[in-house]
């Protein structure tokens, strides 16, 4: 099955224009997991921050070019990152400045010691404005700098013996709750036409060019469907090559 340009444009028309995610010093595998969840739920963009005090090679990238990093993320995320507008930053300030330029002044940090629970409906409803959700690395969490710039801090309440979550699991929980609130309040906004057209020009390979259908299960099912045909063709070719 192929994904046509029309299909991708249809997906873009349903992208959520009021929410983005920023990940600080997160490992490649977890970036890929977060990206896959975010893209599937309609998020259009993702920001990656790798500060100078955190060597990129410790995050799984090594000293690689942006193109190589993109290729690695595409492979690990099962191509989810191919459909996201991803921006890399070398500092927290650079990331926050770009978020501000894009209209994301509402910065919501997830921190285990935050006083406000993710599910506190009485709190100022941070989820309804244009919002950037901030997540830190597995071992260190968000830096003091990022936490200091956040407009809101929320925590995911944990009730079990395990008192920590993988960053990808945490991001999925927070993003899901944020989208639930936005949908319930009718606060979601589609991408503005200029932004939609920009993403189309950036991410689409060209008019009328078939694109891969990025679904592993579908690819496997298609391979199983055509396997008997390929095997039969191979047997015919072997029979033709066999001397009579």
UniProtKB/TrEMBL annotation:
Keyword annotations from UniProtKB, A to Z: Methyltransferase, RNA-binding, S-adenosyl-L-methionine, Transferase, tRNA processing, tRNA-binding
GO molecular function: RNA methyltransferase activity; tRNA binding
Biological process per Gene Ontology, one example term: tRNA guanine ribose methylation
Pfam families: SpoU_methylase
Domain tRNA/rRNA methyltransferase SpoU type as annotated: residue spans: 20-175
UniProt key word Methyltransferase: yes
Region (Disordered): 219-244
Composition-biased stretches (Basic and acidic residues): 232-244
Keyword tRNA processing: yes
Protein name: tRNA/rRNA methyltransferase SpoU type domain-containing protein
Organism encoding this protein: Chrysophaeum taylorii
